[in-house]
Amino acid sequence: MDEFEFIKQIKPNYYRHDTIIKGIGDDAAVFRQPYQDVVTAVDTFVEGIHFSKKTMDPFHIGYRVLAANISDMAAMGATPVSYLISLVVPKEWTDEELIAIYKGMESISKAYKIDLIGGDTVSGDQLVLSVTINGKVEKDKVRLRHHVRSGDVLFVTGTLGDSACGLDLLLSDDPRVESHRYLIDRHRLPTPRVDFAERLKVLNRVALNDISDGISSEANELAESSGVSIYLDYDQLPISDELRSIQSNKQEEFILAGGEDFELLGAVSEKDWPIVQEAAEKSNLTVTQVGYATDGDSTVYIHQDEKVRLLKRGGYVHRN
């Protein structure tokens, strides 16, 4: 059973408290207060699966772990406020390395004005970091995956595939790897799109999903949650000049299934598309129209090489 099937199995049919607006099934949970909604998400990262010393130093590990959680807040349209961190620490990791992990988290938390409010540390066989992040959003302004409608424009912020390519370069032992600093930094030091997402609060409806597992996976999540079909145009998917310059037979895989760019995939009505473009411009960010949604059977298709084919989930799927 993969993680998606496992989530379906444990998802409750109802919630006992009417303050729970959204539970399992999106990038974060939503709790209602009288004046705003509270958004909470948790991610767990395991050494050897999500990160390694071969590709990142401890500072980068801390930075990137918290960046992933902040990106979940962006996908919900929420402003991140605070976080808690729990660590399982093996004896091989030194105090200096652990402090460097916290320094990485401190660096990005300072940039996004987020407070560390607690956590826990225990001993174990391998390094595990579990981060719980809290955010806030105006009532009825949370962005959910099931908000896609037939006729919507599909869009993507930034560029795709950079992080996956950066990781591939780091794993290659190529002595010229440092010459591809942009791609390396896109993997180690991603930029969650919080500012852009916050600027979309003027819209009554927009669906967002952060690209952590690859656009093929995130598009399928939107289609399944909203009960629509999504059509993507491969030639319209935004690619950086740095990625284009890399001669690799994995380029398509990087773009469609690489993930961990922590860009945003979104859907909005055609009439509201100019507002999305304006939000991107004010955030000093590119945004690209990459497809559209239609009535359909919760599937994703991609137009590529003058053919239309079914686009199944790619990227990393966790097994339990």
TrEMBL record:
Mg(2+) 1 binds at residues 43, 120. Mg(2+) 5 binds at residue 213. Its EC number is 2.7.4.16. InterPro entries: PurM-like_C_dom, PurM-like_C_sf, PurM-like_N, PurM-like_N_sf, ThiL-like. Residues 149-300 form the PurM-like C-terminal domain. SUPFAM superfamilies: PurM C-terminal domain-like (SSF56042), PurM N-terminal domain-like (SSF55326). Keywords: ATP-binding, Kinase, Magnesium, Metal-binding, Nucleotide-binding, Thiamine biosynthesis, Transferase. ATP binds at residues 102, 119-120, 145, 212. It comes from the Bacteria. GO terms for molecular function: ATP binding; magnesium ion binding; thiamine-phosphate kinase activity. Pathway: Cofactor biosynthesis; thiamine diphosphate biosynthesis; thiamine diphosphate from thiamine phosphate: step 1/1. GO terms for biological process: thiamine biosynthetic process; thiamine diphosphate biosynthetic process. Mg(2+) 3 binds at residues 27, 72, 210. Substrate binds at residues 50, 260, 316. Mg(2+) 2 binds at residues 43, 72. Mg(2+) 4 binds at residues 27, 72. Belongs to the thiamine-monophosphate kinase family. Reaction mechanism of ThiL seems to utilize a direct, inline transfer of the gamma-phosphate of ATP to TMP rather than a phosphorylated enzyme intermediate. Catalyzes the ATP-dependent phosphorylation of thiamine-monophosphate (TMP) to form thiamine-pyrophosphate (TPP), the active form of vitamin B1. HAMAP family: TMP_kinase. This is Thiamine-monophosphate kinase.
